[in-house]
Specification:
- The structure is a single chain.
- This protein is an all-alpha fold.
- 69% of the residues lie in helices and 0% in strands.
- It has one domain.
Length: 102
């Protein structure tokens, strides 16, 4: 005997993930670049906040956040220069620690 379990059948989605920044920009009346940065910030904070609450070390956070930045770039939500600046600043932060190892 089968139970009658209600099921929701989704039709073709009206929103493609690539167009989310444009739709957010239209609804909030902000520039497209600002909506891309806002969405990227929300994704990064939603990943970094649990890591920081778990008392994760800086290297673990970087190991997780760099692929996340790459994913956001691949979706077109972030410009590449922001990723390059992040890598540069991270390298400068840890330059003295790596210099002591050599």
């Amino acid at each position: 005997m089968l139970l009658a379990i209600p099921q929701a059948h989704a039709e073709e989605p009206d929103v493609d993930i690539i167009y989310i920044p444009q739709q957010l920009s239209d609804h909030l009346n902000i520039p497209l670049f600002a909506s891309e940065i806002l969405i990227s910030l929300l994704v990064l904070v939603s990943i970094a906040l649990p890591l920081s609450l778990l008392k994760a070390k800086g290297l673990l956070i970087m190991i997780i956040m760099f692929p996340t930045l790459g994913f956001l770039i691949a979706l077109g939500f972030l410009p590449v220069w922001l990723f390059l600046m992040t890598i540069l600043l991270t390298g400068l932060m840890y330059a003295d620690k790596f210099g002591k190892l050599l």
